[in-house]
Amino acid sequence: MKEQINFFSSVVSKLYQHALALVFAVNEINENPNILPNITIGFHMYDSYYDARMTYHTTLDLLFKSHRFVPNYTCDNQRSLIAVIGSLGSEISLCMSDVLGLYKIPQLTYSSFAPEENGKAQFPYLYHTVPSESHQYRGIIQLLQHFRWTWVGLFVVDDDSGEHFLQVMEPLLSQNGICSAFTERILKEAFWRTDTEMDNMGENMYLRLTDSKARTCIVYGEMMTILLLILITNFLYKEISLGNVWIMTAQIEFAFASIQMDANLQAFQGAISFTIHSNHLLKFKEFLQMVKPSRTQGYGFLKDFWEQAFDCTFLNLQEKEVHRICTGEEKLESLPGPLFEIGMTGHSYSIYNAVYAVAHAFHAMYSSRSNHRVIVEGKILQFQDFRPWQLHSYFQGIWFNNSVGETVSFNHNREMEDGFDIMNMVTFPNNSFLKVKIGSIQHKALTGEFIINDDLIVWHRKFTQIPPVSSCSNSCQPGYQKKKKEGEKFCCYDCVLCPEGKISNQNDMDDCFMCPEDQYPSKDRDVCILKVIHFLSYEEPLGTSLASAAVSFSLITVLALGIFIKHKNTPIVKANNHVITYTLLISLLLCFLCSFLFLGQPRKLTCFFRQSTFGIIFSVAVSCVLAKTITVVLAFMATKPGYSMRKWLGKRLTNSIAFSSSFVEVVICTVWLATTPPFPDFDMHSLIGEIIAECNEGSVIMFYIVLGYMGILSIISFTVAFLARKLPDSFNEAKFITFSMLMFCSVWLSFVPTYLSTKGKYMVAVEIFSILASSTGLLGCIFSPKCYIILLRPELNIREQLVRRNK
Q1: Among 271, 340, 719, 726, which is least packed by CB within 10 angstroms?
Q2: Which residue has the higher pLDDT, 477 or 96?
Q3: Does the predicted model carry a pTM greater than 0.70?
Q4: 294 φ, ψ (degrees, to nearest 5)
């Protein structure tokens, strides 16, 4: 014959599925030969009536056989108690723990606790078959963020747990960009208030719900909290639906089970509730179908539950008038959802796991020795010698799979690591309802493991926008940023356009931001557009025109060089130094061709050579002009009698002037390239929408030294030519050199301010134009008169014309 152990669960009769889950688990264990094969598990049930005084009374009652309570005293009257399961409310569980902790009796609770309430030192014998409330807090935040609900109302029970909820939740809301529109505390004792006080409370709640933009309301409390909320909505609005989204915490999951048949639940259509995770137990439904008062003995409160659920009365000879007689054959599955749920709910599933946890812990302790013996402190103990405190070490290491294959164990905080299910409440006209699972929060929710299926949600029929909007201000569209309203919470704001140069690409951004360097804001300031690379290319009209001009003038220069080479024996050609003339023409040809170094996207090689090449070639050209000018002046002066410098005239002087003047520029450019050479670079900021591909000069000072030296040579050449302009026309070319150098200096004097005032490809175009214009001026003014005489006036190309003097 099996021996019997008793452990107890404190339940509320209105939530009778909790009691039936306990009975179902006990029956399964007793029928399982693998768990405690020679021991029968029994139970007793007590109702706390949600009252602290009654809780202490019943807790002491289950500890002792007599009705005389002697706290902190163990006597022979003490029951052979192994463990206690209860209750739905954290406050009631803590009251039980005050007494049970004195005797080190394991207490398994299926109510959620705030982390601060679940102190390991303060309640060392309390075990939780539900996850910590902190996971639920984070889940609420993730739900609000998922639907972008930033303006919410809070309804909380007016007790310590409700106050703690506010202390934790309000900072969490603020940290995640969410504001509480209002906070309404619901008194537990409100049911015992006068009609006037109820009217005032209902009117206050009505104003909260209708005047606020908060379409989302979070309800935290227990059964009495939601019952009062339902009572007020029914009392005030009757058939009127408020059109709110109600988010309910796991503690009030079963509150609807006690609603009377005439209660109107339409205001709660589409409510979203967090529930303790549960799993479908097929045998549990079969068990419920077998529950009948006539067939069941020892199920506490079954008669009271049956009469309340089916609105009937069992036949009693003492009662003369009976509204309706209970047959005892009524079916539980016929009851609507507000009165009883056939599917195993989260708290019932937690009780089911709690019973199995106790059984497995005791099995682990008991199976260490056969024949009902266990060695404790070196002494062989019989079954009746077991004490509840001996189970604690086995609870810490318990680990098993329940009947549906889910792992059950306690973590270091004595909590079962499970998650929450997210349910959607669908109401029907007959006030029945259906709970549909729409998501879940795993026990790793703090790391963001949040799952929800929007398509499964049935919203309140009054909503015109799905999902509904719950915010203090209208959403700021991309291109705008939020601006806080003075004197109001940060969730209330105006929308202002992003500042110039910044964008916002999401709704409700606090601040606009700058685009990356290679992008620029769109016109609406809502997106960054990739910048195009800006440089003077051959394909565009400006580049094509400059390239064509460079080629054309290069061909003209080659033609002039060919004419001079062909007529090198004529007097007008011989009168000029062949070397200087050819060098000048070749340098002018190279000047035209060096324009191509400035066209196209800057590369490392082109950047390295183009400015130095330009400077050296132009210095050679100007040096040749200077040499020609000085030669003309000296040659005219040498014709005077007794002139002592005649011996210096000749090609050596001319070549020396040209070479020495050019060599200085070569030295300057060599130093520049050796120390801070130019390199390709990108200017991201000068032009909107474009990236300027340019050559960074490396050293701006060296660049202007190159230009400055070339300018000095030009000014000297122009000055000498200007002073010699009145020499006889038939003898010298000083006038032509004067005109050419005047044009040359004018071009480069206007180049500097123009170059500094432009950006990008237009800066390059200015430099190319200056190169072409100044080179053309030298070519045209110096060589076009000579080519004219050679080709069109050959009669003037004779020695007599060159040596003739004006009288």
Answers
A1: 726
A2: 477
A3: no
A4: -75, -25
